[in-house]
Amino acid sequence: MKDSTRNFQGWLLFAPAAILLLAFTHYPTITTFIHSLYTNKSFIRPRRFSGIESYESMFSDPVFFKVFVNNMWLALGTIPTSIGIAIIMALIVNKAIPGRGFLRMAYFTPTMLPMIAVANIWLFFYAPDIGLIDKVLEIFGFEGNNWLGNPSTVLPSIIVMTVWKEAGFFMVFYLAGLQTISPELEEASKLEGSSRWNYFWRIQFPLLLPTTLFVLINAFLNSFKLVDHLFVLTKGGPDNASNLILYYIYETAFSFLDISYASALTIFLLTLLALTALAQFFFLDRRTHYR
Amino acid sequence: MTYRNRIQTSVELIGAYILAGFWILPLLYAFWAAFHSSSDAMHFDIFSPLTLDNFREAWSQAPFARFSLNTFLLVSFILPAQLLISTLAAYAFVRFKFTGANVAFALVLVQLMITPEILIVQNYVTLSKLNLVDTISGMGLPYIASAFCIFLLRQAFKSIPKELEDAAELEGCGTMSILWKVYVPLATPTYIAFSLVSVSHHWNNFLWPLIISNSVETRPLTVGLGIFAAPESGVEWSILSAATLMSVAPLLIAFLIFQKQFVQSFMQAGIK
Amino acid sequence: MKKMFTKISYCLTVALGISMISSAAIAKTELTMYYPIAVGGKLTQAVDSIVADFMSENPDIEVNAIYAGNYDDTRIKALAALESGKPAQLSVMFSIDVHELRELDAIVPFDDVVSTSEEKAWLNSFYPSLMENGIAAGKTWGIPFQRSTIVMYYNKDAYREAGLDPETPPATWGGLIAAAKALTKDDGSQWGLMIPSTGYPYWMFGALAMQNGQTLMTSGDKTNFDHPDVVAALELWKAFGSEHKIMPEGTIEWGTLRQNFLEGKTAMMWHSTGNLTTVKKNANFDFGVAMLPAGKRRGTPTGGGNFYIFKDTSAEEREASMKLIKFMTAPENSAKWSVATGYMGVSPDAYKTDTLSSYVKEFPPAAVARDQLAYATAEFSTYQTSRVKKGLNDAIQAALVGSKTPKEALSEVQAAAERILKPYR
Question: Which chain B residue has its CA at the smallest distance from C65's CA?
């Protein structure tokens, strides 16, 4: 077949996907950037080019710093924890132990629930005084706490809930990874008399690095994308203690109708995600290659 | 096994079960609360009478049937479209070395990171220009070109030996029938895997549907549940649990029945 | 056989023709309206039933009433719908959204829609304090529908248990603190008072400020947050928890407050009168409702939602919308709505109907909100209300959780509000 025909056919096959991707990923990214450089249009005042003004107000906005820090804390709190628990779960489920199917179901089920349902359920757990956690604490003689209403406990509470939802999801990837490790390696290490911990840390974990890389990037992206629970739990409060970047973007764009500022925030988020994904990829990719 | 080993194993087993217990507890509690009255649920009256009132209440307070239909329609729209478009694109990347393919693929991968939710503001504007706000197709459109699907299928197609394609060509098959007769059937596990992942994801999607759907005719389950649970109106726990259960039931039941397949799918997706 | 077939198709064609002509004759005007709910109870059913009554009386108008969430959600949805291909013609939205909606050129003033002298008189038939939020630039932009004031619910059984007279709830700040102290149990099982600080904290704060003689804004483009008396009001709110120990410290959740009251976790609560009917149905104790106590004077902001008509509507749609609005705010329907929810009847005539006058007689708490109108003020509303309001909410929460002092929090947000509102002067 002629080269040019093949070329044409190739592009034709790719065209539908290309058009949609351009329309909903690349084009909006560009327009978002453009919008961040202009002020909003309003009935009372006309639109004008403002350049980096939006970015300037962003960096002098205390709420912006708060949401950024919150997202960082959230990532720090959820990622290592959920990965750790996921590995443990995968190790457990990988063995032929009694009730393995039940265990796997128990660990994975939260992943099947929408975040909004998860939030509804945990909302009751965290309710002050009448909620499940406070009631249990009462039985043991401890005082209840306003988990979601206290700026110092709201993020940890959300972290616990998020880990509960995510760990099972990552467990599955680790399961897949574990199954690619030849069982002979385990036999060999047993013969050498090395402990299970040694086997894990020296052999399994390094072999799982590709999985860890994948899970890490996934988890990081998720920690920025997942804001559904805020709608039901705290709406970002108290005083922005649980506010996150994407939720702030939503508020700014749809509640305050400030498209210009929302665009600036979005560009910031995109840049942050891009840089981190690249960094993680290169850093861990290097390490996995030389094994 | 030595005595010490046996104790260690038992301890681990118990640990595994305790972990599972904690993990299943929240859902179990919601399940239990949905069948008891609010005050019984709050006071943990384990032997208080069962009741279906909460479900009746929740059902009458919001049109969950319609919401379920909408979610079903949304997912039924997104999945086939995704599979079709990604199949064509993956085929193009694997068997047609068209100019600029590498750059194109890199641009595709961008979507793995920049998902439609992040660009909600501009995507909303795009849809309103297309007059597709408050439509199910509008809700699904940004997701139809799935970089993840293209990526998976590309891997799957790559692993199909060229000899099979050559054999088919010898039999006189054109490019498209090679695709449908050779590539697609052999990539079936990938298709199944991706389908389950996609269905789960879109069944549970919230933020984008929240913004796009205005009326009850388009509102999916997640958004319906979110509005239903709006903090201000202070819905009672049991009714909220019942509503939550009704919303998660379809996917959850499907999962419980097809557990193995679900887990395998996610695993497959992960391996690639 | 062929003859039969021809006959049948002939009949069908005729039938089709007739139905087409008749449906063209009864050309329905279709109205889409969004509405919010911010209090408990089966309000969607109440709305649906009034709308159904309207449609049976007006077969040429089709109304699609869509519940959109709380006030913020509803505004977002209604505005989003305007931008899309399926706009709404009218909606119930926050009474305080008026400046934002005007700035977007989204609504029409009712002065431009009313034509007959009877309709003009109708504009004046509502309670003046309920009209306050709806009036801007000399015109009326919103008609009251689900309106409220804050009222104080109190547990009469708890009062008796604490040795207080259940028929004389506190009328002053001092009295409130004293009563709440008596009602707060040492083991933490019952608090004296709860004022919600999530959801609409600025609304509760508006009451405290008014009771200290101040309003939170002096006009649509000037806020009054750092006035010493306003700061003092926030300091008092904080002191309820930190000093007097009659209220839990930190934030108190709007949504669960009603349940807390019904469960006996708090003996008194400040909440919207819109919760009245739900509380009445579910309380298994004797309870009462009182006006908010006075600081320097009594005070409460009004609250709730008004009807707005969007600008992007045809003359028929406006006429149909007027009919719907007049129906839903008519004295009898307003009375039914008030009984079903606890929201106030929106006009003096509503209270003169049999429905409401007999209800008030047998259940006096239903009249408290109305009587409190004498001390009421407009709810907080400025240009860019959402943004300024959020700043105020954050400030209140910051003060209540102790991360800033009331004075710091309020000065900061006053400065922020100044920056936002200055361009409007």
Answer: B215
C-chain CB neighbours of B43 within 8 Å are none
Could you tell me how far CA A18 lies from the centroid of its own chain? Answer: 27
| pLDDT, tens digit, 9 for 90 and up, residues B240-262 | 888 888 888 888 888 888 877 77
A174 touches A208 (CB < 8 A): yes
Give the start-to-end residue ranges of the domains of chain B: 3-55, 63-271
For A:117-136, CB contacts with B below 8 A are 117-125, 130, 132, 135
Q: Please tell me the distance from the alpha carbon of residue B259 to that of residue B203, in angstroms, as a whole number.
A: 17
Q: Provide the CATH topology of domain C28-147+303-375.
A: D-Maltodextrin-Binding Protein; domain 2 (3.40.190)
The string of DSSP letters for A227-242 reads -HHHHHTTTT-STTTT
CA distance C274 to C149: 8
**Which residues in chain B are closer than 8 Å to A277, comparing Cβ atoms?**
113
Dist CA B119 CA B142 (whole Å)? 10
- Which residues in chain C are classed under CATH 3.40.190.10? 28-147+303-375, 148-301+378-424
Which residue in this structure is represented by tokens 């021809």? C6
Domains of chain A and CATH, by start: 63-289 (1.10.3720.10)
Cβ pair C248:A130 closer than 8 A = no
Q: Decide: C29 and C62 in contact? Cβ < 8 Å.
A: yes
Give domain C148-301+378-424's CATH superfamily: Periplasmic binding protein-like II (3.40.190.10)
The answer to whether the CB atoms of B61 and C83 lie below 8 A apart is no
Q: Is the peptide bond before A238 cis (omega within 30 degrees of 0)?
A: yes
Chains that touch B (3 or more CB pairs under 8 A): A, C
CB A54 within 8 A of CB A264: yes
Q: Give tens-digit pLDDT for C99-134.
A: 888 888 889 999 988 888 888 888 889 999 899 888
Nearest to A237 among C198, C248, C256 (CB): C198
pLDDT in single tens digits along all 291 residues of chain A: 567 787 888 888 899 999 999 999 999 999 999 988 888 776 556 777 877 888 888 998 999 999 999 999 999 999 999 999 999 998 888 887 888 888 888 898 898 899 999 998 898 888 887 788 888 888 888 777 788 888 889 999 999 999 999 998 899 888 888 887 877 887 787 777 777 777 788 788 888 888 888 888 889 888 999 999 998 888 887 889 999 999 999 999 988 888 899 999 999 999 998 888 787 777 766 665 544
Of residues B132, B214, B236, nearest to C66 (C-beta): B214
B-facing residues of A in 44-83 (CB < 8 A) are none
- Measure CB to CB from residue C40 to each of B128, B132, B234 and give the nearest one: B234
Residues 145-174 of A with CB under 8 A from B: 164, 168-169, 172-173
The verdict on domain B63-271 having CATH code 1.10.3720.10 is yes
User: Dihedrals φ, ψ of A21, to 5°?
Assistant: -65, -45
Contacts of C191 in chain A (CB under 8 A): none
Nearest CB partner across the interface for B24, out of A6, A106, A225: A106
